[in-house]
Specification:
The protein is about 30% helix and about 25% strand. The chain is α+β, with helices and mostly antiparallel strands and about 300 residues long. The chain folds into two domains: about 160 residues, Ribosomal Protein S5, domain 2 (2-Layer Sandwich); about 120 residues, Alpha-Beta Plaits (2-Layer Sandwich). The strands form two sheets. Strands 1, 2, 3, 4, 5, 6, 7 and 8 form an eight-stranded mixed β-sheet that branches. The protein has a four-stranded antiparallel β-sheet with strand order 10-11-9-12. A hairpin with a 2-residue loop joins strand 10 and strand 11. Helix 3 packs across helix 4 and helix 6 packs antiparallel against helix 7.
Length: about 300
């Protein structure tokens, strides 16, 4: 789930290409290689029965999966100097931090560290509504633990499901995250089932309210996964979708008509559960349905549950 390389490993073929690039940018900016480069996955919170605040017993119950695209952080010793690969004009050294730097600073402070050089690389655009800071917090926290040998003093504030998924995701598994306590892994082997999550980014502007569902739906979906009944799981994702954003509703309707088993909105994206054999047909159908409605053609990613 979480990879570690040092500045020498950044040049080795076995290191992830994006991690090598992030280490290279660090060296170009700061004049020396990073002490650590860490990557953590992103999160799709598919079903959530309540508020996502960290560490509260009444924070509900969520079903999540990790996706490969999260955050990469290159970290080294030095005065406080943070650089974003996603916002090239942004560089934070003092004063009020820009939004992308807030989770990185929170992780530093959780370790009692107030000076570091850092390059932050978020692998998905913020416009998708999928990055939420938990990935950055976890990547910084893991790099600091490598360098200083001290655990984080607390979890990230805010989205506990995303935070716990970034830390504990396993390949081919979904996670059940409660308000407090450990996570539970349930099988979600889409590769064996010949399925994929198709993430549809339709260019929606503004925020899309996060949907909340009854805890019973979360538990029923988890039971379907334990039984490896992915057809029922797709139907349960449909039940978790709250209509109201026209482009995303239309994208999901078109996906279902073209063969998707079900889907719902996550962030500002539609996420459909699609047989591999139907992915091309679904993409074509969604593009046709959104022609003339969205400000640009939709973009697509296919994913299976990621992790260690």
């Amino acid at each position: 789930m979480i990879s570690t390389i040092d500045s020498r490993a950044a040049a080795e073929p076995a290191a992830a290409p994006d991690a090598r690039i992030t280490a290279y940018v660090f060296e170009r900016i700061f004049g020396h290689g990073p002490g650590r480069v860490r990557h953590v996955p992103g999160t799709l919170t598919l079903l959530n029965s309540g508020p996502a605040h960290t560490g509260r017993a009444n924070a509900g119950r969520a079903l999540t999966v990790a996706i490969p695209w999260g955050a990469i952080v290159a970290l080294g010793a030095g005065p406080l100097d943070l650089y974003s690969m996603n916002h090239h004009a942004d560089r934070h050294t003092e004063g009020v931090p820009p939004g992308w730097a807030v989770p990185a600073l929170a992780a530093l402070h959780a370790h009692g560290v107030y000076a570091a050089q850092m390059v932050v690389n978020r692998e998905l655009p913020v416009e998708t509504g999928l990055p939420n800071g938990a990935e950055t917090f976890c990547a910084v926290s893991q790099a600091l633990q490598d360098l200083h040998g001290l655990p984080a003093l607390r979890e990230a504030d805010g989205d506990r499901p995303a935070y716990m998924t970034a830390l504990h995701a396993q390949r081919g598994k979904a996670l059940i995250v409660n308000g407090i306590g450990p996570v539970e892994h349930v099988p979600c082997d889409l590769v064996a089932a010949g399925l994929r999550f198709l993430i549809i980014e339709a260019g929606v502007r503004g925020s899309v309210p996060a949907a909340r569902c009854h805890r019973l739906l979360v538990d029923t979906a988890a039971a379907a996964l334990r039984a490896r009944d992915l057809n029922s799981f797709g139907t349960l994702l449909d039940r978790g979708h709250v209509r109201g954003q026209r482009a995303l509703d239309l994208a999901l309707d078109s996906a279902r008509e073209a063969g998707a088993l079900g889907g719902l909105v996550v962030g500002r994206c539609a996420v459909a559960l699609v047989p591999v054999t139907a992915v091309h047909r679904v993409r074509k159908s969604v593009k046709a349905s959104l022609a003339g409605l969205a400000r640009r053609p939709p973009r697509f990613l296919t994913a299976v549950p990621a992790g260690r």
